[in-house]
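Hey, quick one: can you model this chain's 3D structure?
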Amino acid sequence: MMLTQKESGLLKDMKGQEELCIAKYQRYAEMAKANELKTLFSSMAGVEESHLQTVTAMMNGTVAKAPAQIGNSNDRVSPAAYGSEEDRKADALLCRDMLSTEKHVSSLYDTSIFEFQDPAARRLLNHIQAEEQQHGEQLYAYMKANGMYS
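Sure thing. Here's the predicted structure for all 150 residues.
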């Protein structure tokens, strides 16, 4: 795939955002107080790493076929066991930050979908955006189950 200057710029932005997401999810997995949140953040970091690989491949002209669908893992979120209210509040701050980050990243993908000429690239970017939105849903579900979202 031959990229336009605009597409190249958008991919560069997406790459930077994916790198930021990976770094934040990995760091926040270490900082999280609840084991459930550590696991959630680590899992999301792995998905973001696959997004980074996809974006990097696109920067090199390769567009993979978009998967048919994404999984739904928001159905059964149970409250975490917090030792103190202070720990719950610390985790709530991490969740709010990542929810805000996911909203921003999803918006970047939304814009990019409309700017790419290649239909396969648009489908692939749409799939990644759906996974970013899924991350937001997972964060919301965790926050709601733990009294962190009003």
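One thing worth noting: DSSP finds four helices and no strands in the chain.
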